[in-house]
Amino acid sequence: MSLPKRDGVQGRYYLIQKPDTNPEVLEHADQCIQDVLDGTAKENHSGYPVVVRNQSGTPFLPSQLLERYLSKLPLKGFPYEEAVTFCDALRRLVGWREIGHTLGKYIKHQVQERFFEIGENEDYFSPFPLCTAWPELRPEDVDENLLRFTCYVAVCYTVYGASDNTIITEHYLDLVSQLRPDMVKQLKTAGSGKLPKDIQRRKTEHFTASANDVFATIRITARDSTEECYAEILDYLCAVLEQEGFPRSYSVEFRGKEKLYLPIPGLPKKGVNQLFACAVQHPNLHPAMARYARLAMREFEWYQNLSDEACAMPGTFAVFALGLEGEPWAPLVTEYLDLCDDEHSSLQGKFLHALIRKFGFQPWTLGVLVRGALSMQWLEPAREFRSLIANEESLDALLAVKRRFSAYLLPEENEDPKFRAIAWQSLLWAIWGQASENGGSKVIKSAPKEPRERYQEIFR
């Protein structure tokens, strides 16, 4: 048996071709499926495409293994527990990206197309057509465990998929709710059931809270405004995020008696803003806030209950609150800025303006500003920046940053002279805006005579 090679793709793997697959290939595939279940299958961590090898070393694409496994399952008396066990094992081995599409196709063919009349998309932006359960469908025509498996796949799209995959979750749950509304109601009430009971719901003297992994929500109500109250809330938030099965994009809905928000103009006045504005008043809680931020921060993940123009990575408000406390939190802030999605995230600009307004241009704030300027397409300066930089101490701080600029860049950034030049120009733009172009001629020309040499050195 020869190994087929895919043009333009590194590596080789066996193909399960329908209907004429070599029986020996199927035998190896079935052994690979069993090895996945036994935990003895191997995955190539660095190669492309991702392949799974059985104990004999025979490689297969994860999607084809999953297709073969699912194709052998009965639709009546669907083995829910066994199917979930295999899918979870394969996901842990290769990652959700390698199996999500295949599971979606299975739900489409075996649930959506079998039990629903499929209409037109409701509008141009809708990714799914309008689906209505066949009126003549009887409850006994639909296997309960197949619907449970549909719910499992729906939950996986929220927990392991991209932040916008919640649309897929909602579509699948809508299908199930037309046939078994009680099943979806249970998910809304208790989530998937995988979270520990004290994480699903927690009630103390100081606060009440609940977490739902299916709908990626954390709801918290503070009963008082004491340090003990916020300490317990932060501990709960961290406990939720330490659960492997909780989504990395989620919403935090907070209610408290203390109507306080971070002193950053333009930030959305949402509960999550209020929570960290209140908590940061207590210095003893700062380490717990930092712990939450580091658990929460993930590139390309978002707080789900903020509008698109105010989109923010989880951990944003905790980082901003601590950042405004001063230099000790600069490393956390730069960690955050390096994870920000420069195409979609812009709230960090409002924070950076507030930071410089509060502390001025010092070596540490300029270090933060370097990373902030690189976290956005072009960071526009605040109106006050020209006057805040126009003193010897601030100009000397900027010159000091220029002389050791490589220390403010990541190693891979520092290797590229063009990138270093762009990074420096981005910093100058973040201070002077358009006036920084053309060698800063406008800035130098309008500068007082005494510090003009400093300006010339900055723009040289």
Largest sheet: 4 strands, mixed
If you compute it from the alpha carbons, what radius of gyration comes out, rounded to the nearest whole angstrom?
27 Å
**How much of the residues is beta strand, in percent?**
5-15%
What is the average of the pLDDT values?
Answer: 90
Q: What is the rounded distance between the termini?
A: 67 Å
Describe this structure in a few short sentences.
This protein is of the alpha+beta class. The chain contains 21 helices and nine strands.
SSE blueprint:
Blueprint: H1 23-38, E1 42-43, E2 52-53, E3 59-60, H2 62-71, H3 80-94, H4 100-115, E4 116-121, E5 129-133, H5 144-160, H6 166-179, H7 181-190, H8 197-200, E6 201-203, E7 207-212, E8 217-222, H9 227-241, E9 251-255, H10 271-279, H11 286-296, H12 316-323, H13 330-339, H14 347-359, H15 363-374, H16 385-389, H17 392-403, H18 411-414, H19 417-432, H20 441-446, H21 452-459
Parallel strand pairs: 8-9
Antiparallel strand pairs: 1-2, 2-3, 4-5, 6-7, 7-8
Helix pairs in contact: 1-2, 2-4, 4-5, 5-6, 6-7, 9-11, 11-12, 12-13, 13-15, 14-15, 15-19, 17-21
Q: What does this entry look like structurally?
A:
By secondary structure, the chain is an alpha+beta fold. The protein is built from 21 helices and nine strands. α17 runs parallel beside α21. The protein starts with 22 loop residues before the first helix and ends with a helix. The model is unreliable at 1-11 (pLDDT under 50).
